[in-house]
Specification:
The chain has about 280 residues and is mainly α. Helices cover about 65% and strands about 0% of the residues.
């Protein structure tokens, strides 16, 4: 691996990627730039990825060379309005240059289009149709990146079924870290309510949330039916309420028998036995 070789690879990467970000504008966040890009621009990004797959395969670029050349290419940001967006895109493009992914890039792109377009068509005909791919990835471009990442890991993504399995597994709403963050927000909201309405049930709810850990959520998701019970706040023993909590009100359950007025009065007075 020579300096000249790295410079050559970096120049190729830069020349392939730079047209995509010349007109993005001064975006503060590369993710925001991608979200606001038109679908045609997203397609151009995928076309550039396919070009880089070909260049890296034809040139026999190694992982070490790609890792060294990518930051050099990102630093070639002259004339680019958003260097951050440029660097982010190059970072994503490294996935298509991976030796395990680049030889399958065209195949994975075709699979991405097939599954995404089928889901889109189904949703357009029935808005109640589940959309696991659109739930997992904001755009088809992000889905393509995800497939390339899996290929780089050596995971076989060969048909629509495995793509849909990946989509379900990639659902951000099922991420235990996100679930824990949502619980933290709920806890803070409960604390605000509790400060105004100090009900003991709210106190218990806050204590319960405090005990839930990421592992509890991950386990519950993986073993929905037989997951271990989540840690929870201790409850007072029956008949011995904790301080500040009202004792349970005893309830008399009337037996389900046929009785007339006279029998009812006798029962209430304790002069008749009920079997």
């Amino acid at each position: 691996m020579t300096t000249a070789r790295i410079a050559e690879i970096a120049s190729t990467i830069r020349n392939a990627c730079s047209p995509l970000v010349m007109d993005i504008g001064a975006k503060d966040d590369a993710t925001d730039a991608l979200k606001t890009a038109r679908e045609s621009e997203a397609n151009a990004r995928e076309a550039t990825l396919l070009r880089l797959a070909h260049e890296s395969e034809a040139g026999g670029w190694t992982l070490e060379e790609i890792g060294a050349a990518a930051p050099v290419a990102a630093a070639m940001s002259q004339g680019i309005k958003s260097p951050k967006a440029f660097a982010t895109y190059i970072g994503e493009a490294k996935n298509v240059m991976h030796p395990l992914a680049r030889s399958r890039a065209a195949e994975l792109y075709a699979l991405r289009r097939e599954v995404w377009d089928a889901e889109t068509a189904a949703w357009k005909s029935d808005k109640n149709t589940p959309t696991p791919c659109r739930t997992a990835w904001a755009r088809g471009y992000h889905m393509f990146i995800a497939l390339l990442i899996e290929a780089g890991k050596g995971n076989l993504i060969a048909d629509a079924g495995t793509v849909l399995e990946l989509a379900v597994a990639s659902n951000p709403h099922l991420d235990p870290k996100r679930g824990l963050a949502e619980l933290a927000s709920a806890r803070e909201a409960l604390r605000v309510v509790y400060s105004n309405f100090p009900a003991w049930l709210l106190e218990d709810a806050i204590a319960l949330i405090d005990k839930i850990e990421e592992g509890d959520l991950a386990g519950a998701r993986q073993h929905r039916a037989d997951a271990p019970m989540l840690a929870r706040a201790e409850k007072p023993a029956k008949g011995k309420p904790a301080k500040g909590k009202p004792a349970p009100v005893p309830v008399t359950v009337m037996p389900e028998i046929a009785m007339g007025p006279a029998e009812v009065n006798a029962f209430l007075n304790g002069t008749v036995a009920v079997h």
